[in-house]
Amino acid sequence: MASGTLRRPGPGWAAYVDSRDQQAASPEVASVMQLEQGSSRVEFHRLNTDIPVRYKFLSKTIDLGTDQIYEGTTCRLSGGGCLLVGKVPSLNWIPALLMGKILVGVNVLLPQQEAPVKALCRVSWIEAISEGSDRLTFGIQFVDIPKEGQDLITKYLIKSQMTTH
Q: What are the tens digits of pLDDT across the range 65-104?
């Protein structure tokens, strides 16, 4: 794990193996994320990319005082989530984000797709913040994504793999 990175396992996560430092099958695939839920094991390849993301923060238990839509980017995308770079309205939200009390609704704007892929996400970790910066890098896990959206992401990842070989 990179120093300065906060991690909190989500519910149902038996294991999270971060292999960012390991050699990937191709330069475009950063690593493989493995997670085990019960006895099933799912692996997702992470693709280094630059895709616009619109997002907003949602909570049933905390009055956020805003329903503003933010714009950020994902520099790494997988079938299970993405690495989002963007703003958080208040650094005081970080504990609630890591505890799952605040979720993130995302619209991932995949290239050559008219409609965005919509998903509800949980923040899994947040990288250390540089003093004076208003942008965070945080790993988010898809917790609710329509099958059509999941299929579009999977097809995008496969197509990207095929065009890089």
A: 989 999 999 988 988 999 999 999 988 999 999 999 999 9
- Torsions phi, psi for 21 (to 5 deg): -85, -5
Question: Which conformational region is residue 38 in: left (phi greater than 0), alpha (psi within -120 to 50 degrees), or beta?
Answer: left
Q: Which backbone phi and psi does 103 adopt, to 5 degrees?
A: -105, 170
- Please report, for the domain that includes residue 59, its CATH number: 2.40.10.220
What domain range includes position 146? Answer: 47-163
Find the angle CA(36)-CA(38)-CA(40) to the nearest 5 degrees.
60
Give dist(CA 104, CA 60) in Å, integer. 12
Domain presence at residue 23 = no
For residue 53, is it within any domain?
Answer: yes
3-state secondary structure of 57: strand
pLDDT at 10 over 80: no
The CA-atom distances, in angstroms, between 1 and each of 13, 125, 145 are 17, 11, 27
